[in-house]
């Protein structure tokens, strides 16, 4: 198998590559990443032990760099590459449109031209907008994004489906709920809470902290992606979720309890503009068609995640003090402790 993965130095992308290479060690896998602030070389530790692994430092908008790999023939493209943090999309929406929409379009055009056999677009449950206190989003729910980030991902999804309808490109889309686990960039809710608590620093929560998210361990997500890539029906959208809804305040309290830290570390801060109150996705379709469901209980996965960040302090301290945070501050102009929640 010859597969091209974009965004493979990020959180979910690097976990997927690690999972995929262990499962299919003979794969030729080209990892394309621009290595912006959240693309971390340290996330790719051990990849070069696999003889078929290749790394390409490139922007997914750069057709000239990407084209030779498409021309050589690809069985699959898996597109993780995205600007993904809601706060930054509010500050810099044009950056999100360039990567998430234009970059996806460039990959689609190359895939169509060179006959890629499977194109898997990694999307998000945020394209559906916000839920009330009851119900779940299904794959047939209308798209109603509420942030520039979510709108850019929804736009990319529509382009992906258009290439299926117009050109017959065998595409697949997955929309996953909130991920957690090792190698997640420290701007996100769970690693931010762990790191700040370890340092006895305030743990920020937006508004009243009652926003509800469905949580899934990244390893469960990677299993689902492998199943969709292998057996999913072209032209199909699959929701992926952990069936584990928690408020942000509940999650932070669990982390503080695991670390033996006092609850008075929590600091409530002004809410994000347009902050969605609740997300939740139905997973009936992927369970019925592909036999997948989440297997890692949240309490177990969260304890493992806390343990990972305690064991890998050097990893996150390098991010907080090094070039990654300098890039972040220079380009987006605000502190780590201000941010919250999403995944890639």
Describe this structure in words.
The chain is an alpha/beta fold and 344 residues long. Helices cover 42% and strands 17% of the residues. The strands form three sheets. It has a seven-stranded parallel β-sheet with strand order 3-2-1-4-5-6-10, with helices on both faces. A three-stranded mixed β-sheet has the order 7-9-11. A two-stranded parallel ribbon has the order 8-12. Helix 5 links the parallel strand 5 and strand 6 (171-176). Helix 2 runs parallel beside helix 4 (93-114). The longest helix has 22 residues, at 93-114. The protein is globular. The two termini are 25 Å apart.
Average predicted confidence as pLDDT:
92
Provide the low-confidence segments as ranges. Answer: 331-344
Could you give the order of the helices and strands? EHEEHEHHEHEEHEEHEEHEHHHH
What is the gyration radius calculated from CA atoms? Answer: 19 Å
Number of helices: 12
Please identify, by name, the CATH architecture of the largest domain: 3-Layer(aba) Sandwich
Structural category is alpha/beta
The level-1 CATH class of the largest domain:
Alpha Beta
Helicity level, as a percent range? 40-55%
End-to-end span in angstroms? 25 Å
Largest sheet: 7 strands, parallel
From the 3D structure, determine the CATH topology of the largest domain.
Rossmann fold
Shape: globular
What is the total tally of β strands?
Answer: 12
CATH superfamily of the largest domain: NAD(P)-binding Rossmann-like Domain
Number of folding domains?
2
**What proportion of the residues form beta strands (DSSP E)?**
15-25%
Strand order of the largest sheet: 3-2-1-4-5-6-10
């Amino acid at each position: 198998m010859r597969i091209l993965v974009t965004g493979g130095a990020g959180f979910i992308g690097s976990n997927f590559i690690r999972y995929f290479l262990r499962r299919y060690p003979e794969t030729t896998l080209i990892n394309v990443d621009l290595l912006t602030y959240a693309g971390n070389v340290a996330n790719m530790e051990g990849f070069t032990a696999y003889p078929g692994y290749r790394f390409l430092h490139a922007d997914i908008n750069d057709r000239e760099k990407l084209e030779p790999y498409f021309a050589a023939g690809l069985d699959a493209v898996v597109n993780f590459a995205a600007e993904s943090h809601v706060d930054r999309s509010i500050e810099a929406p044009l950056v999100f449109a360039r990567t998430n929409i234009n970059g996806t379009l460039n990959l689609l055009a190359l895939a169509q031209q060179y006959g890629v056999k499977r194109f898997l677009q990694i999307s998000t449950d945020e394209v559906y907008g916000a839920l009330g206190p009851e119900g779940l989003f299904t794959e047939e729910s209308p798209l109603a994004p509420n942030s520039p980030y979510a709108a850019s991902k929804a736009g990319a999804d529509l382009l992906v489906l258009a290439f299926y309808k117009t050109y017959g490109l065998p595409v697949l889309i997955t929309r996953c709920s909130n991920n957690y686990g090792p190698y997640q960039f420290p701007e996100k809710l769970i690693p931010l809470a762990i790191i700040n608590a370890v340092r006895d620093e305030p743990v920020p929560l937006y508004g009243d902290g009652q926003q509800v998210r469905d949580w899934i361990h990244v390893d469960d997500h990677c299993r689902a992606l492998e199943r969709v890539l292998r057996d999913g029906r072209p032209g199909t959208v699959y929701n992926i979720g952990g069936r584990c809804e928690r408020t942000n305040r509940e999650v932070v309290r669990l982390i503080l309890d695991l670390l033996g830290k006092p609850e008075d570390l929590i600091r409530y801060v002004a809410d994000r503009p347009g902050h969605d109150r609740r997300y939740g996705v139905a997973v009936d379709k992927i369970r019925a068609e592909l036999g997948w469901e989440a297997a890692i209980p949240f309490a177990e996965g969260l304890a493992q995640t806390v343990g990972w960040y305690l064991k890998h302090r050097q990893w996150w301290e390098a991010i907080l003090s090094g070039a990654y945070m300098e890039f972040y501050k220079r380009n987006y102009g605000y502190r780590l402790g201000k941010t919250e929640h999403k995944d890639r």
